[in-house]
Amino acid sequence: MGLVLVTGAAGHVGGNLVRALLAQGRKVRALVHNDTRALEGLDVERVKGDVLDPATLRPAMEGVEVVYHLAAIITIEGDPDGRVRRTNVEGPHNVVAACLDAKVKRLIHFSSIHAFEQIPLLEQLDEGRPLEQSGRAPVYDQTKAAGQREVWDGVKKGLDAVIVHPTSVIGPFDFKPSRLGQVLLDLYFRRLPSLVGGGFDWVDVRDVVAAAMAAETRGRTGTNYLLGGKWRTVKELAHVAASVTGVRPPRFTSPLWLAKVGVPFALGWAKLTRTRPLYTFESLHALQYSNRRISSERAQTDLGYSARPLEETIADSYAWFREAGMLEGAKRKAAR
User: Fold this and answer.
1) CA–CA separation, 23 vs 44, rounded Å?
2) Does some domain include residue 259?
3) In this structure, what are the phi and psi dihedrals at residue 280, rounded to the nearest 5 degrees?
4) Residue 85's domain is classified under what CATH number?
5) Is residue 330 over pLDDT 70?
6) What SS3 state is found at 230?
7) Which residue range forms the structural domain that includes residue 66?
8) pLDDT of 335 above 50
9) In sequence order, what are the residues at sequence separation of 6 or more whose Cβ sits closer than 8 angstroms to the Cβ of residue 133?
10) Beta partners for 29?
């Protein structure tokens, strides 16, 4: 099989995807920007570039048969400088244009469950649900929906593209780490004063990667595929983590209304300590308005998709964190 280009290759999902492609004996070219820890030691061609700079995309596409587009910005802190909107909307526009110019055989575009309207929360959410279009929705949701429309426009122009929609991705090889990976580390080191209400549909990064690779050969052109796992509360996630690590989770679960009262203090502390905020209005919005009945039936039928239990994912995540030395170097309160 021919050369594969992966944008966002150094991210959590991207790094797992590159590893899976290499395991199949594929030749991989990675479009990289800054942090490349996820690619260290891998036999992959690295090309410096930016999806916001079409001039860097043209040489990156040379000789490429398949493109996996993952480069995006996940934000729970708004978009004060406009880079989120540019990356998540202009980025897909530029990638689509470059794919058409280079005549690639297929584009696999990574969107998100957040591209869809989540409400009504208790009615099944499948690929027929409208895309998010409310101007009051979090900027990430708005931009992922808009980016997907750019891909659909490309399909109308003759591009062979498939779109995958993971839910909340978690799992090993999480170098930076991701925000959800950071939650696992914070639970381990007992950095969280309390849990918060609400929950997500959690999915293993390896299952997302397997489905995306299946979409390369089995996905239908212009088709969306939801890749979900199982909806669990944050409290349930914390107790699964505790069963793996032996570290007792916070006893108190803050209702969402109370957590919202604390957002200004969380933001102020993050600014003072130059760290990521524990939570923001946008992250609490995602917890509150996370659909609980996400259907992956289309992916199961077309792609042979299946999702492993959350317990396995959490155990493997901590095993990898330990192997990577990320469970060392900081004092952890003894479990009581």
Assistant:
1) 12
2) no
3) -135, 175
4) 3.40.50.720
5) no
6) strand
7) 3-172+201-229+292-308
8) no
9) 117, 142, 145
10) 5, 45
